[in-house]
Specification:
mainly alpha
């Protein structure tokens, strides 16, 4: 139960973030203000959707899931660094730390659930 709840939450966050990178004008402007080019924003959106799919589909191999977890962790760590460098409110960093904790919960429970 812990695995599926944490994984579904993680995948929802990745998907909503991805959609906002493409369709939500304030997010698009915010990514530009952080200093990232548009191609990077689109690339992140595609990679986040790919990671969410890999994590939520049960029959995807464990090796792909581990890469998806690593990529998602990198997304959140990059967001923390970018927002701190931009001197954004600390609540944004706190939210990303919570997302990392959800990711860790999903990964640890995945390993336990599948006996890895």
């Amino acid at each position: 139960m812990i695995y599926w709840v944490s994984t579904a939450t993680l995948c929802l966050v990745l998907t909503l973030s991805s959609v906002s990178y493409i369709f939500h004008t304030p997010t698009i402007i915010g990514v530009r203000e952080l200093g990232f080019p548009d191609f990077f924003r689109v690339q992140l959106a595609i990679l986040k959707i790919a990671a969410a799919l890999v994590l939520i589909i049960p029959f995807v191999s464990g090796q792909f899931k581990e890469w998806a977890y690593a990529g998602a962790a990198l997304f959140f760590l990059t967001a923390i660094i970018a927002h701190l460098a931009h001197k954004d409110p600390y609540i944004i960093t706190g939210v990303n730390v919570v997302f990392i904790l959800v990711l860790l919960t999903s990964n640890i429970s995945y390993r336990h659930y599948y006996g890895l």
